[in-house]
């Protein structure tokens, strides 16, 4: 059984993540953590969550706290604290503001929760994952981000819809930045176990249209309803279930790579990893030459912004 804490639990994604993880049978304690002053709202969220349990037969305990020491003993900490983007912004516009929040937190939990896994959601998630890794001093398998898992889900739905098949028949993944430079791996996409390019109808797939839809999905949802909530919340649920069930599934998350993709590394970015109770393990892969080139460009972009953020954090820049 496990204790899972949510940092930023008063936020939109934090609240839905609490509901999503409370339904995982391995979770016996959900802890809602918020900034000092948010005790009242945390209590309300906890009560609302507990009200749902009678309908779902959930049997977890729910606690709330504004004291960071209470995160001690968490098996996994889900980090959703920070500012979300407005529809006219890119995720990278949030980098420095959110990096300060992440750094401050990571330094504190280094001693409070040295054994916890840390799942980053806050955007820009690849950069926030690297900031959390650096300042928490944790091992690289213990700190990871939701990365391109949500983008991969979006692509999977779009492909299933085009081919009129159940989503479970589609296997695909997107690697790289959770952002504009993301790279769909058509070479790793199958429908009913058949490589997608071996299907005659592949020639009719509107690839550019589908990728625009995937890339713009977050922005479109933010423009119309203010925030993306259920997609990321369910993605968080999948990741936590995979970890606590020690499932060894291969999912695409933001993780620190050394050289696993064609010797490209020293960056936190979306890649296929094996996930289990002790964390994430990037899977060495070989992909098509065009995919390598696009991944390399995505890596260079993320490395550059990460470096700028690290420099600004070290120099105390505003
Ligand atoms: N990577 C993804 O797939 C994905 C998906 C959805 C949201 N997000 C990101 O998650 C974050 C939260 O999104 P949201 O919609 O829940 O936002 P929200 O505004 O509803 O919630 C933000 C939370 O962060 C807390 N917070 C804000 N500033 C803080 C600070 N200075 N110190 C400590 N805590 C602070 C707030 O109290 C609140 O709990 C954003 O960065 C958003 O971009 C990422
Ligand atoms: O788009 C956003 O800013 C939120 C999130 O990263 C998403 O893709 O839903």
From TrEMBL:
It comes from the Archaea. SUPFAM superfamilies: LDH C-terminal domain-like, NAD(P)-binding Rossmann-fold domains. Substrate binds at residues 85, 91, 123, 154. Gene3D superfamilies: Lactate dehydrogenase/glycoside hydrolase, family 4, C-terminal, NAD(P)-binding Rossmann-like Domain. It is an enzyme of class 1 (oxidoreductase). Belongs to the LDH/MDH superfamily. This is malate dehydrogenase.
């Amino acid at each position: 059984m496990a204790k899972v804490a949510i940092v930023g639990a008063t936020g939109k994604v934090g609240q839905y993540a609490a509901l999503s993880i409370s339904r995982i049978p391995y979770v016996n304690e959900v802890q809602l953590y918020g900034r000092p002053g948010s005790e009242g709202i945390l209590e309300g969220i906890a009560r609302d969550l507990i009200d749902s349990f009678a309908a779902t037969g959930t049997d977890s305990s729910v606690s709330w706290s504004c004291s960071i020491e209470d995160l001690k003993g968490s098996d996994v900490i889900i980090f959703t604290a920070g500012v979300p983007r407005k529809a006219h912004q890119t995720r990278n516009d949030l980098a420095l503001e959110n990096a300060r929040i992440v750094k401050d937190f990571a330094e504190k939990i280094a001693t409070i929760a040295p054994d916890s896994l840390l799942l980053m959601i806050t955007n820009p998630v690849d950069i926030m994952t690297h900031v959390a890794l650096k300042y928490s001093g944790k091992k690289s398998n213990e700190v990871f981000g939701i990365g391109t898992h949500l983008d991969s889900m979006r692509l999977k739905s779009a492909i299933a819809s085009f081919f009129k098949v159940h989503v479970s028949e589609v296997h695909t993944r997107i690697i790289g930045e959770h952002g504009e430079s993301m790279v769909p791996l058509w070479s790793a996409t199958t429908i009913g176990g058949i490589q997608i390019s071996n299907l005659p109808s592949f020639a009719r797939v509107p690839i550019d249209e589908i990728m625009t839809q995937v890339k713009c999905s977050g922005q479109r949802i933010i423009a119309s309803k203010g925030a993306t909530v259920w997609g990321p919340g369910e993605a968080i649920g999948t990741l936590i279930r995979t970890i606590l069930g020690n499932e060894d599934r291969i999912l695409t998350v933001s993780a620190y790579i050394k050289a696993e993709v064609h010797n490209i590394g020293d960056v936190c970015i979306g890649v296929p990893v094996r996930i289990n109770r002790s964390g994430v393990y990037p899977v060495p892969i070989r992909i098509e030459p065009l995919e390598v080139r696009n991944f390399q460009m995505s890596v260079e972009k993320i490395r550059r912004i990460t470096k700028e953020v690290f420099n600004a954090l070290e120099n105390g820049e505003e």
